[in-house]
Every structure is written in structure tokens, then in C-alpha cells.
Design goal:
Distance between the termini: 58 Å
Number of strands: 17
Number of helices: 15
Largest sheet: 5 strands, antiparallel
Strand order of the largest sheet: 4-3-2-1-5
Radius of gyration: 25 Å
Strand content: 5-15%
Structural class: alpha+beta
Shape: globular
Helix content: 25-40%
Length: 515
């Protein structure tokens, strides 16, 4: 059935899932094979279009009563911006860039689907586990004795992770299979069996760290030396997948996109400046060298246990958790391939100026947005929440434009038709000039936990007084990155909190006490 189109409703006519319905989310350039997303949110692997019958009924209703889009491309305008890419569909199937002709590893993420620029983390969320996913710092994780167990798996110095995992399965992300089953690599589990397996792992692989951050067989210094090694950083980056971008982009866009790759969870990452790349630490596309099997659970600092992971996903979501317990939607913390392509199309055909210089300016803006530190001590921690996982160009440009330190009115305003900074003009500005919205004050976030006070946020502004005057200790663990100090009695806690609050006032920082 060669006339099938993306977005068509289809029914399986043969095989294991005969009779089930879904939506076509991708089509091979020659129209012979399709990739279908079922109504149960499972992804059927790419197969012949002859195995499906096209239906005429409309797509299923979304939870809010609207219609569900066939992909995560969130706006018709972005679909229109993709029109110039239609010429890419004329590539012969044997072309290296033709994703559907490539062989995919059945035990890993569907990397071709990521490369199709329609990546949706919702496809990999297991509905039956929505209340069981863990993320962030697992404070209640079981602790084991700090002494080495002579029969434990980690006694073997060549073991990067437990023997029940392989280099593929240790990073393999489980996927929903139907409404009540989970596929992990080549194995299929019921939801009950999968929960039992996760519970066993949580007990068998507890937290093995000492108070100083080292684990039972490796010091923090050794770990830091391994993860900051330039060769390790480059190796992890070049192991990441290269998305298949449209073939008809300009040289500027191709040069920009060549700097990015995609990590295991769909985040675009870029080499850091420390090894000759573009990304600053804490930039949106900066990545950490992450222990796939967590260091805190005994994972060794070895190349086969390393991968590049967008820094936000690593520091705020994965932390001490096993890969198999994570929520894919929460792990999408950086910019996705679809969002990056939307920005690139805007640089190509949008904006206020059509000349080559204007296009170059827009490309440089995109590079700065993705690879430089946020202004005024800000953070990209809530990026996807702020843009609502949208690839709509207006949403993205408005987000980056409001966070930018340069004047973007002439290049962005005409595209979206609204002022980025809608405050009244400031005194002394030219008539008609748009006044810049005052930047939000940098913040010191403080919390009390386990008989200690922790300070997060814009601590770079008060590093010296925290260290020298208040005697706080810097925790450089990748999942923490905060200053902390223990206390004994409640009076001492109160004095510490007052000191930090006074420090914030002296440096014009916002003070927030979080639970």
C-alpha cells in the first residue's frame, strides 16, 4: 500500500498484533515501509506497509478532549517550516543518510526513530509504572556496610557493573509492550514481574558510599580524574548517535548541526570547551561523563561504564538511580532534535532579515543559546517544563529571546509579532524602542536535611564567604554540586540559616528556604 501517509490511521492485518490499531509516525523514502505507534503507546518496529490496512476514522481523542498529533511536533507552523525538507524524501534508499535502510540494534533505544527528528519520550513511558518511577537523589536508598564484601561482585576489579548486566543491557531502557507488559532487551515481563525485578535490584545493589563520597572500592579523586579525562570525554561524545538531518540545509546550518549529537534519552549534546568544543559547563547542551551503573552502587570508573548524558538529566534526575527505573519524559531535560531543527529552519527562512549576514547572526544566536551559560546566574533546569516540550518555533524563540543578554528585537520581533519585553519604554530610550524586562535576581536556595544545611543556586557569588567565613564544605558530586555544613542543636541550625540569609542580602541575592 504505497499511498500511505504520515498520520494515517491503520490496522494490523497480520502477525502477533493482528487487529490492533495505530498511527503512522514515519514512512521510508520509497514508501514501502512504515513505523507505527499503537493506541496503547507501544511502537511497532518498521515493517512493510502491506501488513496494515488504512482506516478512515479520525485519530483517538487526547486526554484533554483534543485530537492527538501523530508525532510530538507541537504546532502546524513547525510542520510548515519543515516543508523545505521535502526534497530529502527523494534520496535513494541506499543513501547513507536514509535512516530506514539502516540496521538497528534491537536491544537499544530505537536510535533511527530519534534520528527521524520526531522523538517523543512518551513513547517509552510505561503507563503501568507511572507511580513507580524514581528520579532525583534517592535519599531513602538502602545503605550497605562500607567494608568490602569478599564475595560481592565489585571485588573483581575488572567488573564495571554486576554480572547479571551486559554492556548493552546495563543501559537498555525498558519499553511498554501492550498495556500490561514490559520489554527489556530480548526479555518480556509482565508488570508484576518487572516490579519484582526492580525491587530485587534495589535490595541487591544498595548505596555503598562513605560520608566523604567515595564508594567501597574507589575514591572520589580517582572517579573525578577518570570522568574529567579529555580522552574519556571525547570517547563518550563520539559514541553518541548522529541524527539524520535534512539534506537540503545551507552550509551554515550543516556546520552548526555537525557540532551536536544525541544522548541515549534524546537530549542534544555538544563537546565542552575543556576539550576544544563549544559548550560551557551548565549550558543547555553540556554533558557529563556519567556512570551508567551508578558509582554510588559500586559501579566502577571504566570506559564500558561511561556514557555522555546531558548534565541536567544526570545531576537532577538520574543521580543514584538505575537506568531501568527512570522516567524517559523526565530524562528529556535538554533540547530535543526536533526543537533544534525548528531553530535551524528559523535561522534559514525566518527572522526579521533575509540577507546572508542576518542568517549568520541567527545561527550564532542559536549556538550561543545552546552552548553558553544562562545570563544572571540562571539555570536551564526547567527548560522543557517552560516550553512544555514544544517544538513550536514561536515558543522556543520567545523562551530564548527573553533569556538572552543581547538585543534581539530586530531579528525576532517581526517573526513572532509580539514584543519580547513588553514593559513600557524606559526613560531615555528612543521612541518606539522596546524596554528590556528586568532580569530575575539570582537565588540562593537553602534546605535542611539530615542534620546539615545545604546551599544551592548562585553560590559562585558567595563562594569565598561560604568557605572562609561560614566554614561550609563543597560537595562536588555530579549529582549534588552544593555547599553544606553539619549542625548539632537547633540553635546552631538557626544561626546558620540567619548567616546564609544575611549573606544573600549583602550580595543582592534572593533567599529561598526549600523543604
Amino acid at each position: 500500500m504505497r499511498s500511505m501517509q504520515i498520520g494515517d490511521r491503520v490496522r494490523k492485518t497480520s502477525g502477533k498484533f493482528k487487529g490492533e490499531e495505530g498511527v503512522v509516525v514515519s514512512l521510508s523514502p520509497d514508501g514501502v515501509k512504515v513505523l507505527v505507534k499503537s493506541d496503547a503507546h507501544a511502537m511497532w518496529r518498521e515493517q512493510s506497509a502491506d501488513n496494515f490496512a488504512r482506516l478512515q476514522q479520525p485519530p483517538p481523542a487526547a486526554a484533554d478532549g483534543g485530537t492527538r498529533p501523530p508525532t510530538n511536533l507541537s504546532a502546524d507552523k513547525f510542520a510548515r517550516l519543515q516543508q523545505p525538507a521535502a526534497a530529502a524524501a527523494t534520496r535513494p534508499p541506499t543513501s547513507p543518510a536514509a535512516g530506514p535502510a539502516q540496521v538497528r540494534d534491537p536491544e537499544e533505544y530505537d536510535t533511527w526513530y530519534v534520528a527521524s527528528l520526531a522523538y517523543s519520550p512518551d513513547v517509552y513511558v510505561i503507563p503501568g509504572l507511572l507511580g513507580s518511577y524514581t528520579s532525583g537523589k534517592a535519599r531513602n536508598m538502602t545503605h550497605a556496610p562500607y567494608k568490602l564484601d569478599s564475595v560481592a561482585w565489585y571485588v573483581n576489579k575488572d567488573a564495571a557493573f554486576p554480572k547479571e548486566f551486559t554492556e548493552v543491557s546495563v543501559k537498555c531502557i525498558p519499553r511498554p509492550e501492550g498495556a500490561d507488559a514490559v520489554r527489556w532487551g530480548r526479555e518480556r515481563y509482565s508488570l508484576v514481574q518487572w516490579r519484582q525485578l526492580i525491587a530485587e535490584w534495589q535490595v541487591n545493589y544498595p548505596n555503598l558510599t562513605h560520608a566523604n563520597g567515595s564508594n567501597c572500592h574507589e575514591t572520589v579523586g580517582h572517579r573525578g580524574k577518570k570522568t574529567s579525562n579529555p580522552d574519556t570525554i571525547k570517547h563518550c561524545f563520539f559514541k553518541c548517535k548522529v541524527p539524520t538531518w535534512p539534506a537540503n540545509l545551507s552550509g551554515y546550518s550543516k556546520a552548526l548541526l555537525a557540532s551536536f549529537r544525541v544522548d541515549s534519552w534524546g537530549n542534544m549534546v555538544c563537546l565542552p570547551k575543556s576539550v576544544g568544543g563549544l559548550a560551557d559547563n551548565d549550558a543547555l547542551c553540556f554533558f557529563d561523563v556519567d556512570h551508567i551503573f551508578p558509582f554510588s552502587r559500586g559501579g566502577r570508573s571504566m570506559m564500558k561504564n561511561f556514557e555522555a548524558l546531558q548534565h541536567g538529566a544526570n545531576r537532577w534526575v538520574k543521580v543514584d538511580n538505575l537506568v531501568q527505573t527512570l522516567n524517559p519524559r523526565e530524562m528529556l531535560c535538554g533540547v530535543s532534535a526536533a526543537q533544534l531543527l525548528a531553530l535551524v529552519w528559523w535561522a534559514e527562512i525566518g527572522g526579521g532579515g533575509k540577507g546572508q549576514k542576518d542568517k549568520q547572526k541567527r545561527h550564532r544566536m542559536i549556538e550561543a543559546w545552546l552552548t553558553e551559560l544562562p545570563p544572571n546566574g540562571g539555570s536551564f533546569r526547567a527548560f522543557q517544563t517552560d516550553v512544555k516540550y514544544s517544538a513550536d518555533i514561536e515558543v522556543l524563540i520567545l523562551y530564548f529571546g527573553r533569556r538572552s543578554v543581547c538585543d534581539l528585537t530586530n531579528l525576532i520581533g517581526p517573526l513572532i509579532g509580539i514584543d519580547l519585553f513588553p514593559n513600557p519604554p524606559l526613560a531615555g530610550t528612543a521612541h518606539g524602542a522596546v524596554a528590556r524586562k528586568p532580569a530575575a535576581a539570582a537565588c540562593l536556595k537553602v534546605r535542611v536535611i539530615e542534620k546539615r544545611v545545604e546551599v544551592w543556586g548562585a553560590t559562585y557569588c558567595v563562594k569565598e564567604p561560604l568557605k572562609n567565613d561560614l566554614n561550609f564544605i563543597w560537595d562536588h558530586d555530579d549529582g549534588r554540586k552544593c555547599w553544606w555544613k553539619p549542625f548539632g542543636q537547633e540553635k546552631e541550625k538557626g544561626r546558620l540559616l540567619q548567616s546564609v540569609q544575611r549573606l544573600a542580602q549583602e550580595h543582592s541575592l534572593q533567599y529561598t528556604l526549600t523543604p
